[in-house]
Automatic annotation (TrEMBL):
Protein name (database record): Saccharopine dehydrogenase
InterPro entries per UniProt: NAD(P)-bd_dom_sf, Saccharopine_DH-like_oxidrdct, Sacchrp_dh_NADP-bd
Leader sequence segment: none
Species of origin: Halorubrum lacusprofundi (strain ATCC 49239 / DSM 5036 / JCM 8891 / ACAM 34)
Region span, Disordered: 211-245
Amino acid sequence: MTDADRTHDIVVWGATGVAGRFVAEYLTERYAPDDLSLAVGGRSPERLEQLVSDLTGRSDAWDDVPVVVGDATDPESLRAIARDTRVVCTTVGPYTTYGTPLVDACVEAGTDYCDLTGEINWVREIIDRYHEAAVDAEARIVHSCGFDSVPADLGTLLAQSFAVETFDAPCQTVRIYLEGGSGGVSGGTLASFGEVFEAAATDPLARQTLRNPYSLAPPGERSGVDPGEQRRPRRDSLRSAWTAPSPMAPVNERVVRRSNALLGYPWGREFRCTEVVPTGDGLTGAATAGLVAVGLGAFTAAMSVGPVRSALRRYVFPDPGEGPTREEAEAGHFSIRVLGRGTAADGPFTVEVEFGADRDPGYGATARMLGEAAVCLATGDVDSPLDGGVLTPASGIGLPLAERLRDVGFTVSVGEASDTRR
Ligand SMILES: NC(=O)c1ccc[n+]([C@@H]2O[C@H](COP(=O)([O-])OP(=O)(O)OC[C@H]3O[C@@H](n4cnc5c(N)ncnc54)[C@H](OP(=O)(O)O)[C@@H]3O)[C@@H](O)[C@H]2O)c1
């Protein structure tokens, strides 16, 4: 089947959910039907028709948006969608529960795919089951195209590309600082979070995946020098400040290491990457780092106990389908700084990247990250040596995604750090 035989450039699958709706709204605001043949998909025709009525009511350009109906538990319906589409952009999660048949359908049909997963236990399963078949089918299966892990992964790619261009050497170490952020959380995200802990409690492979810093690397390459995520407060030599563990480090660091591996280790086999939360200097910085570490440790410990996890999911977390409103998603902000250190012929250098947006990181900003990832795949606006496989944003799409995000108002900058070359 050629691409010309496919009806839709992009199907937003899960468009009736919190994140999917924001992606559909974003794409219909940013693009016109002449630019993009877009469809929205899900399991409920009524909810989809209501969504289409909302989308067309808000837009001068879109009179209609086609609807595709299927079910994540009905593989035949997913095959039909995958066969008829260039890129399936999915927000149907938890991915551990619902995701595999869709990947299967996309690989079978040679259809590109992008998602929002942070469920690394599931990504590991998909790598092992589908990477080779996706390479053969030239299907790009690009996971983690939202707040996890686009800023960390593309931030690292930007730092490394600048280092190689400017100093003729890659950064040997990269630190990703989650500097600031405010935003909400949806029931779907917390359900996915719960699935990771559930898998860790019940599945030895998931436990191993969460323990090994290289667990998302290709088979045979799942070890290295990087010790993995920081678990305690630590004073940071690059910034002369205290840092705490980052809740997103287990996902983002592994994704970045997979990017390095898939690209053929352009940053070296000794490359190290750490994501942390900077908390400032002095006693206050140390105390804040301690509090963050203790809070994160307590939450992880609580989620690891089956009855506590069940009670939190049942009585405390919002239900799937609940989440930030449009106004809330358009508010909020996040900023990430990446510092990369390397050694050029004339001595050490430090590269600095800023990556951020004035929108809720997990919803307003994520809608743009995932939506633009899908557009990159649909239009072939990618800078990647890989035509297929189970990929990361940096290895499967690359810098064009950063350019597009800059065009829609993200802060994306890279340069030599002014005060750290020594
Ligand atoms: N990386 C990030 O930054 C980020 C940010 C936000 C979300 N996420 C992830 O994105 C996922 C979705 O989150 P969310 O808050 O949007 O969740 P949600 O509101 O619960 O939406 C889930 C979607 O899946 C659909 N769905 C559920 N079961 C289905 C089935 N059997 N067949 C077809 N569709 C089905 C739902 O359809 P109905 O509407 O018919 O129920 C809904 O459209 C989660 O895994 C979350 O962790 C990641």
